[in-house]
Specification:
Elements: H1 3-6, H2 11-14, E1 21-28, E2 31-40, E3 43-48, E4 51-61, E5 64-69, E6 72-81, E7 84-89, E8 92-100, H3 101-109, E9 111-115, E10 118-122, E11 127-132, E12 139-140, E13 145-151, E14 154-159, E15 164-169, E16 176-177, E17 182-187
Antiparallel strand pairs: 1-2, 1-8, 2-3, 3-4, 4-5, 5-6, 6-7, 7-8, 9-10, 10-17, 11-13, 11-16, 12-15, 13-14, 15-17
């Protein structure tokens, strides 16, 4: 698969990690859907909401997939265009973003919750702190790395949402944390 097509594949798949069960978040426009995929004997069980499909997928040419979905054959072209995954199937075109569920949760719920005058950075998922980049008294800028947490075999960097001064660091490298644990407090 070419680097241009890799944008349509989540990091776990790009790295070639074992993937018998995968959770994805698919975003199309303003709609977001959770998709669970289970690999079983060369085929896939795909669950979207209350719909379940048996899917056999084969790459037949560069970016062209042959899909057998519940016994019905489809051809799909998948391409990366300007950072979005574009899927053409059955004469229709869909522009989507594919994200591993863990990364989606961290991006949308993790990191810093800011209020007037400060930020409280909480663990979005249970995991292990692998790196702490700040200490009390440090001035931070928006987007600056604060801590790195390993969750579900992926390292996720949590960053400051706004500038401020680190008031407290409640974790250290190697420490296990639970979802919702306060990691860093920043004053405005």
């Amino acid at each position: 698969m070419s680097p241009a097509r890799d944008a349509c594949r989540p990091p776990t798949l790009q790295a070639g990690l074992p993937t018998n069960f995968m959770n994805f978040i698919i975003t199309s426009g303003s709609q977001t859907h959770r998709v669970d995929v289970t690999k079983d004997n060369g085929t896939y069980r795909v669950v979207l909401g209350d719909q379940v499909w048996a899917v056999d997928a084969r790459l037949t040419a560069h970016g062209i997939y042959s899909l057998l979905i519940d016994g019905v054959s489809h051809a799909a072209e998948v391409d990366d265009r300007a950072g979005e995954c574009v899927v053409e199937v059955g004469g229709e075109t869909y522009s989507i973003q594919v994200e591993e569920r863990t990364r989606y949760i961290i991006r949308t719920r993790g990191g810093a919750a800011s209020g007037a005058g400060g930020q409280t950075v909480k663990a979005p998922l249970p995991g292990k702190i692998t790196h702490v980049s700040v200490q009390p008294g440090d001035a931070v800028t928006a987007g600056q790395s604060l801590v790195v947490i390993e969750a579900m075999k992926m390292e996720n960097e949590l960053k400051a949402a706004a500038p401020g001064t680190v008031r407290e660091v409640r974790v250290a490298a190697g420490q296990a944390v639970n979802a919702g644990d306060v990691l860093v407090i920043i004053s405005g």
